[in-house]
Specification:
Strand content: 5-15%
Oligomer: single chain
CATH superfamily of the largest domain: Butyryl-CoA Dehydrogenase, subunit A, domain 3
Number of helices: 11
CATH class of the largest domain: Mainly Alpha
Shape: globular
Number of domains: 3
Helix content: 40-55%
CATH topology of the largest domain: Butyryl-CoA Dehydrogenase, subunit A, domain 3
């Protein structure tokens, strides 16, 4: 394994850092205060500047107007962009659009690519991904109840979804619905494209997260489908392949998330160290002089670096050996990086005192939006069980009388 950054990628990373420092961070507080929905025009102007700088879509194929970076290189970009809550959105590599682009590119028909993939990759429209349901365990997507039944040349969808991220203002949704309840549990669901203007598609509400309902891209919606009819030609891939396609989408997506979380860790760590050096407890005593603060800083640094190496190793494995070879690593980073991010944010907030829990710094935005990292895409506990079972299989004795090696 060689994690040395290729010179071309290093140059891109530096340009992105400079762009964030010059154009994004000075506007960040005002945009977050107004919200994504109310800041649409300002965000679009910044996106135009990103495109003009030739930095749009680091993960996109060059044929789609992007930089065509492989997973490991894009992970490094994702880390830099994670430094600001605006980063991924402004550069066209935000979830859920990035994942939807991947599956449209791989499984979409020519007509679907023209209608949805092209405009989505160009940032002209947004999308959402409707899988999680309020009445079934999100940790087991085979338990879905939202159903799509055939009526002639159409699917008719009925059911409820929630935590459909960024549905507010999205042009279309990719919906995971049961098309054959009698099939094997991994072959029951199908992915279907549903334009959000379709009769029967209803955005019930933006779900408040720690008191913030959000707006536009920064939101999680509850969706109701009531006899929502779309053509069968809106199906993504073969019928019954929804679960398989979802797994394809989630693997690389977790690398993107973890590297973004590491960018958040860097921001919170920088703020922790800056606060420690600047905060006076007495005329000749700084917060940084306290041993407990020094211990926090050392521990956070060690955990950030460990989390980063784990994530880069997983990305390298996927790039070189495919996702199947990295399944255990992906589960490891999902829970470990999320826990490290939570700890670093908490330490930074604590060091800021009362200021840390206000909206006067970016810390409260990160904390309220990212606490869910330990829940979505499979709760940490499930990933830990998956990893432990894989490890324990290697220690099983060959027979009852033979001890494990």
């Amino acid at each position: 394994m060689d994690f040395q950054t290729p010179p071309a990628t290093a140059a891109i990373l530096q340009r992105i850092r400079e762009f964030l420092a010059r154009h994004v961070l000075p506007q960040e507080a005002a945009i977050l205060r107004r919200g994504f929905g109310e800041s649409h025009d300002d965000l679009q102007k910044l996106r135009a500047e990103v495109k003009a700088a030739g930095l749009w879509g680091p993960q996109l194929a060059t044929s789609l107007g992007g930089l065509g970076l492989p997973l490991l290189d894009h992970g490094l970009v994702s880390e830099v962009l994670g430094y600001s809550p605006l980063g991924h959105y402004l550069f066209g590599c935000q979830a859920p659009d990035a994942g939807n682009i991947e599956i449209l590119e791989k499984h979409g028909t020519d007509e679907q690519k023209t209608a949805y993939l092209g405009p989505l990759a160009a940032g002209e429209i947004r999308s959402c991904f409707a899988m999680t349901e309020p009445d079934s365990a999100g940790s087991n997507p085979t338990l879905l109840s939202c159903a799509a039944r055939r009526e002639g040349a159409h699917y008719v969808i009925d059911g409820r979804k929630w935590f459909t991220s960024s549905a507010d203002g999205a042009a279309f949704s990719i919906v995971m619905a049961i098309t054959d309840p009698s099939a094997d549990r991994h072959s029951r669901a199908t992915m279907i494209i549903v334009p959000t203007g379709t009769p029967g598609f209803r955005l019930v509400r933006n779900i408040p997260i720690f008191g913030h309902a959000g707006s536009g891209y920064d939101s999680h919606a509850e969706i109701a489908f009531d006899r929502c009819k779309v053509p069968i030609s809106n199906r993504l891939g073969p019928e019954g392949m929804g679960f398989v396609i979802a797994q394809e989408r989630l693997g690389p997506g977790r690398i993107h998330h973890c590297m973004r979380w590491l960018g958040i860790c860097r921001r919170a760590f920088d703020m922790l160290c800056d606060r420690a050096n600047r905060r006076l407890l007495a005329p000749d005593k700084r917060l940084a002089d306290k041993q407990i603060i020094q211990a926090w800083i050392a521990e956070c640094k060690a955990k950030i670096e460990a989390a980063r190496l784990l994530t880069l190793h997983a990305a390298w494995t996927i790039d070189n050996h495919g996702f199947e070879a990295a399944r255990e690593q992906v589960s490891l980073i999902k829970f470990y990086v999320a826990e490290v991010m939570g700890e670093v944010l908490d330490r930074s907030i604590q060091a800021h005192g009362a200021l840390g829990i206000t909206d006067d710094t970016v810390l409260s935005f990160f904390y309220t939006r990212e606490r869910g990292a330990r829940i979505y895409d499979g709760p940490d506990e499930v990933h830990k069980m998956v990893v432990a079972r894989r490890i324990l299989r290697a220690y099983q004795p060959q027979s009852d009388s033979e001890p494990a090696q």
